[in-house]
Write a structure and sequence with these properties.
about 25% helix, nuclease, alpha+beta, Ribosomal Protein S5, domain 2, 4 strands, ribonuclease P activity
């Protein structure tokens, strides 16, 4: 997913998005095995289902308490943005070390900026969920 989709980096986050129209077509090779390059990068599920979001928060962000706090904040922020994403979109949010010291408002602003750059959110629409 990370290799196939598009990504947008901010100072605290990197957001990877694979929209349903970017996913490889399942029947494109008509029963043949996928080429080696595509066999390793194809999503594990069909992208026609529901939107899925994953988080990567490494030890570089901080101690376990800080990593879990960042994950909880990101999960809460994505909960507000989830209905706006197209159905079947796959999202991976990777926290950078600066995310450990960031407030929820700053993380939300980074998420919105990344989604707008990736053209997932409407550029003229209101910021979702930034409290």
């Amino acid at each position: 997913m990370v290799r196939r989709g598009r990504r947008s980096g901010r100072s605290r986050l990197v957001v990877h998005v694979l929209r349903p129209d970017q996913a490889p077509e399942a029947g494109r090779y008509r029963g043949e095995a996928l080429p080696e390059a595509e066999a390793n990068t194809a999503p594990t599920r069909k992208s026609t289902g529901s939107t899925r979001v994953g988080f990567v928060v490494s030890k570089a962000v901080g101690s376990a308490v800080i990593r879990h706090r960042v994950t909880r904040r990101l999960r809460h922020l994505m909960r507000d943005r989830y209905p706006v994403l197209p159905a079947g979109t796959l999202v991976v949010v990777r926290a950078l070390p600066a995310a450990g010291d960031a407030s929820s408002r700053e993380l939300g602003a980074d998420l919105d900026a990344a989604f707008r750059k990736l053209r997932v959110l409407d550029p003229d629409g209101p910021a979702t969920g930034s409290r």
